[in-house]
Amino acid sequence: MDAVSRNERYHLVCRECPLERLFDTAVDADAIRRDHVDETGHRVAVDRVE
Predict the structure, then answer these.
(1) CB of 12 closer than 8 Å to CB of 23
(2) I need a labelling partner for 3 at 20 to 30 A (CA). Which of 12, 16, 43, 44 fits?
(3) What is the tens place of the pLDDT at every residue in 2-45?
């Protein structure tokens, strides 16, 4: 029986516009979050998902 691979991913959602993405690393998600907040001033949430 094959083992199921459990990869963590990071879900980024802007609370003020349609931006929503999944990332494989926290570093990538945080970079996009920072850029989006700097450019727009929007509130953005990033959560780890499995």
Answers:
(1) yes
(2) 12
(3) 444 467 999 999 999 999 999 999 999 999 999 999 999 999 99
Q: How far is CA 18 from CA 6, 12, 14, in A?
A: 28, 11, 7
Distance CA 30, CA 12 (A): 9
Q: Which of these, 2, 1, 23, 19, lies nearest to 11 by C-alpha position?
A: 23
CB–CB of 44/14 below 8 Å?
yes
Question: How many other C-beta atoms lie within 10 A of the C-beta of residue 7?
Answer: 7
Task: Give the predicted TM-score (pTM) of the model.
Answer: 0.80
Q: Where are the alpha helices (H) located in 1-50, listed in sequence order?
A: 26-40
Residue with tokens 């349609």: 18
